[in-house]
Design goal:
CATH topology of the largest domain in chain A: L-amino peptidase D-ALA esterase/amidase
Strand content of chain A: 15-25%
Structural class of chain A: alpha+beta
Distance between the termini of chain A: 40 Å
Shape of chain A: globular
CATH class of the largest domain in chain A: Alpha Beta
Number of helices of chain A: 12
Radius of gyration of chain A: 22 Å
Number of strands of chain A: 15
Oligomer: homodimer
Mean pLDDT of chain A: 89
CATH superfamily of the largest domain in chain A: L-amino peptidase D-ALA esterase/amidase
Largest interface: A-B, 63 and 63 residues
CATH architecture of the largest domain in chain A: 4-Layer Sandwich
Low-confidence stretches of chain A: 182-187
Helix content of chain A: 25-40%
Number of domains of chain A: 2
């Protein structure tokens, strides 16, 4: 894949400043509270989890986004403020009110985001006490620290920038994401925050984000099948001074959409690569389907199969488990004779059984790599889809069994 | 639960004889080949996997069942004869032909069943060579050995009997099952073979089996989401001499349906309890739903969540993961305020958050048990459903990573 790559120090975005502190939300001395400031006049698009048990900050952020454009995003780790009922909502209001008062904006202009343990009361005092330090620390080059500040079980920050030219002006798109348990969509909270200095009309901004999420974060997570706190935000400050983009069919809008999408794909792939206990990065591409939906069904059935995942962990080319997963993906009239499966460049199955040319040695060599591509051709149409996943290891069980205990 | 229990030595069934040998299909010295003989005139009902990549023996057994009532079931472990194409079909024919010839029946009267590694050629010679020993060894009390002979990664046989009285005659129902990887429906082949000495008309027999599977094996496995080789067979020999049962609304048919269902439930629960690496036996019951479908959706979302399963392994009462699973089960208009969740007798969540009466100590005490009941009340109707599952342990990863290597 060409395009932007993950970076330790992404590019600043005009109109955006960030600060990160160790507030002691759950553990002392660990960066766990981030404030992102957007210049006045910035626009904001956001997508949230569809989980019925969504967290207090999600309720509040949704409500406020409908009322006003946010000036501040307040993001804490260590506590998800989910399953906390009315008290959780009051806690989220209290934290954001502290920011609003200190920064001189309305409460509705501050959005809360939380990730961490579910069902425990949010410690409000350490968060409000840290607000002055946050406001003092705001800086345009605060992305790198913020990328670390939003981590929970992540082992490394996920940060990425892209630049493009619109009407002779350089436009920057920078984003950060957290989330490490992406082996299954229900593994952990995913939070992503992107910003651009382009001037973008609200309807186009909403559309840009929706499309970018669809081809990135929704390709590592089943649509609608999300945690209590998942959120992805895209801010547009307009600081680049371009003429406001309004139509999604313009060349400039297309370029910006590509940049936002590329940054999201890199962040999403970064989440998978940092998956809890992951030892493999697996691209599952399904082509030859009648439509995208059936390609996705097959790709996700493979990507979610614990049997396939444990075989990947063992570097075992157990292609029988792949065939079994394809066969139960719900395509009622699938002609198994037309299906072929490759591991990297090795044809492993065709005509409903093991390929004549296949050898265990070639399969084992393909599986030994850290990056593996499983390519399925359904042989019944022109549609294709790609999803990304990781393997299932001892460490996965350890991390998720020990977390919280 | 009252009713029949798993037994080491189940009751013989008039008209049924079994034999088990170590044929060396994959490992030497391990019982791996079972022959089950049904008396002439027996009737047979069967349900098979809906996986598009179904195995050669499934193809052949389905085809033959439509043509004739079987006299013999030939069951091998060590090799699934799946993903083996035309050669696999020829191999299944060769093995069953050896039985047919030696026993003096038509080929169509012998059904093959295979479980084990997918995608490797079935070793025909050791199977056909063992046929004389199988026929010599047939015995009415062969169930206990057969229960062991069909095991793969199972650690113990699953056998169960029930008896009932129909018109003054004692009727016996005995069954055996194998399958250990039931954490997810795609984990492993499930095979179950049941027999009764009742005389039952074919349409009623088909219905009895369908209903019994629905309330047992389909409650540990999502409907339609099965491996390449899954099968469940019910034979009725008529040896008890009762007047043939024909109508499903008779008291006798109802009693027999209950007995067959109870045996299937015990076998299904036995599969879960013997789940690969399982350290907990978990009953997930969902009540207060508008219909059974939404209760099942919630129950299976909980039962399949790796996050819930790892928390169970850790004996961690992480009820937040339970709420998150309920919330993403796809009930669009779920009122989270009406939902309550119990761990055994401990109310852990209600009103959308942790119950006021809940303490971590009480939750931890409930989770420390080996048998755990997760009871969800959706608070929106009268429907209820129950499924059974197990936890997700290090051993699960080890068993599935090492199997085949």
């Amino acid at each position: 894949m060409t395009g932007p790559e993950l970076a330790d120090a992404p590019l600043p975005v005009g109109g955006i400043r960030l600060a990160t502190v160790a507030a002691g939300v759950r553990y002392p001395g660990r960066p766990d509270l981030v404030l992102l400031e957007a210049a006045p006049g910035s626009r904001c698009a956001a997508v949230f989890t569809r989980n019925a048990f969504c967290a207090a900050p999600v309720h509040l952020a949704r409500e406020r986004l409908a009322a006003a454009a946010p000036r501040y995003l307040l993001i804490n780790t260590g506590n998800a403020n989910a399953g906390t009922g009315a008290a959780g909502l009051a806690d989220a209001r209290a934290c954001t009110a502290a920011v609003a008062e200190a920064a001189g904006v309305r409460d509705a202009e501050v959005l809360p985001f939380s990730t961490g343990v579910i069902g425990e009361a949010l410690p409000v005092a350490p968060i409000t006490a840290a607000v002055p330090r946050l406001l003092e620390g705001l800086a345009a080059d605060g992305w790198a620290d913020a990328g670390r500040g939003i981590m929970t079980t992540d082992t490394r920050p996920k940060l990425c920038s892209a630049q493009l030219d619109i009407g002779g002006r350089t436009i920057t798109v920078t984003g950060m994401a957290k989330g490490a348990g992406m082996l299954r969509p229900d593994m952990a909270t995913m939070l992503a925050f992107l910003a651009t200095d382009a001037a973008v009309a609200q309807p186009l901004l909403d559309e840009l984000l929706r499309e970018a999420v669809e081809r990135s974060f929704h390709r590592i997570s089943v649509d609608g099948d999300t945690s209590t706190n998942d959120a992805c935000v895209l801010l547009a400050t307009g600081a680049a001074g371009n003429e406001e983009l309004t139509a999604n069919d313009s060349e400039a809008a297309r370029l910006l959409a590509e940049a936002v999408g590329d940054v999201c794909v890199q962040l999403a792939r970064g989440l998978v690569r940092d998956g809890e206990g992951a030892s493999k990065f697996v691209t599952v591409s399904v082509e030859g389907g009648r439509d995208g939906a059936e390609c996705l069904a097959v790709a996700f059935t493979i990507a979610h199969s614990p049997l396939v995942k444990t075989a990947l962990f063992a570097s075992d080319p157990n292609w029988g488990r792949l065939l079994a997963a394809i066969g139960r993906a719900g395509i009622a009239d699938l002609d198994v004779e037309a299906v072929s499966v490759r591991l990297n460049d090795v044809l492993i199955a065709e005509g409903g059984c093991r390929a004549a040319s296949y050898s265990e040695e070639a399969g084992a060599a393909a599986m030994a790599a850290t990056d593996i591509r499983i390519a399925v051709d359904l042989g019944r149409g022109e549609a294709s889809e790609t999803v990304w996943t990781s393997d299932f290891s001892y460490d996965y069980v350890r991390i998720n069994a020990e977390y919280r205990t």
